[in-house]
Design a protein that fits this description.
10% strand; 13 helices; 44% helix; five-stranded mixed sheet; 5 strands; Nucleotidyltransferase, domain 5; 3 domains; alpha/beta
Length: 345
């Protein structure tokens, strides 16, 4: 169908603005509207413009009419207000508050939230999928929680507070505060995540017969100094050897050593108490609450050790394993700043 010529006059400044906008815009609608106006102003018919821009001729007419009424504002597409939100901002806040609480504490007869139960509890007239979208936007994710053993020690709180007092005293130089613990090292590899190619699972060998030895270690809470001994058995003899290493290091230090320990029986053996009585002016023990490994930062050193030495690696002989253990711990002991960054993480 033939189209009549539309006389569209543009001033020189306006033409130049439209040409620059047409060149710079990344919005295809803005580009098409600029080109439509420019082509009509150059004398092309609506049919020619529609063919050149691969659009319907009615689009050309609508663009010309809108430009005549609104000017350059008509070149930009209007933002659609969209459908009204079904969940208000107040309801989003209520959703965020509700999911942070356990259902039974709210008097409900179930233990874990689902999207549907949240919608029913908050009386939201929306689908469960909509609730999920809002939870994701509020940075909630479905994850498997970890288990935590709560300490049954009735004096857990005061002991934790006293431990913080010891740490402050160590910072002031009034005591030498050490955290001590023991770690198993076995031929059976410890396992953790590692990089694998998609579709391929890495296999790690295991020994025919497992064998173990033990590391007794202590780290200074202020300086990051690390001391350790490797022992064949997890007994008080190995622990006493660690104590002798600590005492030898601080032989000429007038400041008393405070050694923080868990409640493992070797720390309370008669031979250990006898050694402690002999050096009571130089060292004393402070026992952590029962089942509270989170209060002993040397546990983080052991995790760092396993990730770098025994995770996902099979040592064919105990000799090779102990050589790797000694090499890594000897290198780590020369890096007290690294040890501090681990125990303070």
């Amino acid at each position: 169908m033939a189209s009549r010529t539309i006389v569209l006059k543009l001033s020189r400044p306006r033409r130049r603005r439209l040409e620059r906008l047409s060149l710079k815009t990344t919005n295809k609608v803005v580009f098409r509207r600029c080109q439509t106006v420019l082509k009509l102003a150059s004398g092309e018919t609506p049919g020619q413009v529609a063919e050149a821009l691969s659009c319907d001729i009615s689009t050309v007419y609508r663009t010309q009419q809108a430009f005549g009424r609104q000017g350059e504002r008509a070149l930009w597409p209007r933002q659609s207000p969209g459908r009204p939100r079904k969940v208000t901002e107040a309801e989003r806040r209520a959703l965020d508050k509700a999911i942070a609480q356990e259902p039974r504490r709210l008097g409900l007869n179930f233990s874990n939230w689902t999207a549907k139960q949240l919608a029913l509890y908050l009386k939201l007239a929306v689908h469960a999928v909509t609730v999920l979208r809002h939870l994701w936007a509020l940075r909630w994710r479905w994850r498997r929680p970890g288990l935590r053993v709560a300490s049954p020690d009735p004096r857990y709180a005061p002991k934790s507070r006293y431990l913080r007092r010891l740490q402050r005293a160590a910072q002031r130089g009034q005591i030498r505060l050490y955290y001590a613990d023991e770690m198993d090292v076995a031929l059976l590899p410890t396992m953790s995540g590692r990089w694998m190619r998609v579709g391929h699972q890495t296999k790690v060998n295991t020994p025919g017969v497992n064998a173990k030895q033990y590391v007794m270690g202590a780290t200074n809470a202020v300086t990051g100094d690390l001391f350790w001994v490797i022992w064949e058995r997890k007994n008080n003899a190995g622990f006493r050897e660690l104590l002798k290493v600590l005492l030898a290091h601080h032989a000429h230090d007038p400041v008393k050593i405070v050694l923080v320990l868990d409640n493992f029986r070797i720390h309370m053996a008669k031979a250990v108490k006898a050694l402690l009585g002999k050096f009571r002016k130089f060292i004393r023990f402070y026992f952590l609450p029962t089942y509270s490994p989170q209060l002993n930062p040397i546990e983080r050193v052991w995790r760092h050790f396993r990730r770098n030495v025994t995770d996902n690696v099979f040592f064919k002989t105990m000799r090779r394993l102990l050589k790797a253990v000694a090499s890594f711990l000897a290198e780590l002991a020369t890096q007290p700043d690294t040890v501090l960054s681990i125990i303070l993480a």
